[in-house]
Structures are given as C-alpha cells and as structure tokens.
Amino acid sequence: GRLLGLEAELAEARGEIAGLRGELDRVLRAGPSVSSGKPMVDLECAEAAMRALFEVRGERMQLETELASSRQLVEHLTVEVRTLRRERGALADEKEQLLWQLSDAVA
After folding, report:
1. Rounded Cα gap, residues 62 and 71, in angstroms
2. How far, rounded to the nearest angstrom, does the alpha carbon of residue 24 sit from its chain's CA centroid?
3. For the CA atoms of 74, 80, 84, 85, what is the dihedral angle to 10 degrees?
4. Fewest beta carbons within 10 Å, which of 10, 53, 70, 74?
C-alpha cells in the first residue's frame, strides 16, 4: 500500500518536472520580442520557474530515497517471513515426532 503510494507520488513529481522543464524551455526560447525588443517573459518569472524545478527535483529525490528504503524494507520482511515459515515447518515436524514418541510411550 505505502509502496504504491510512494510510486504514485514519484510519478506525479516526474510529471511536474516535465511540465516545469517545458515551461522553462518556452521561457528561454522566447527570448526578446521582435516588435519591442523587450523580453517576452521577465527574469523573475524564469527564476521562479527554475526555483520550482529545483524544489520539485529535491522532492523527487526524497521520494526516490523513500521508495528505495521501502523496497529494501519489503525485501527484508520477505526474507524474515520465509525464515519464520521454515522455522514453523521445522517446529511442526518436531511436534509430530514428539506426538509419535508420546503415543509409543503410552502404548
């Protein structure tokens, strides 16, 4: 559940980054307006887009780290569950043997 949630957040962050990159590319390609010679988009707007891009990248990196950590935890728990199942099987076999020994002793 949590792993799927993190993957969805990561996909959303990647989408935001793609959108911001597109916006930034448009700003940078726009350059000065042909008619007035003034920039079509002011520098503050471009800087804000860059800051937003870096912020979302930081969030993405954090989500990727969380996701990797969650995956490691899932792998660790999977190994632990397998070990416990083997131990449970061994204990069930031991119980079976003890029951046979007990029934032989009673008989």
Report:
1. 14
2. 26
3. 50
4. 74
User: Across-strand partners of 39?
Assistant: 32
Angle between helices 2-30 and 43-106 (to 10 degrees): 160
d(CA 102, CA 95): 10
The whole model's pTM is what? 0.50
Sign of CA dihedral 29, 45, 20, 51: positive
Q: For residue range 11-54, list pLDDT tens digits in order.
A: 888 888 888 878 777 777 766 555 555 555 677 777 887 888 88
CA distances to 18, 30, 38, 52 from 43, in Å:
21, 12, 11, 14
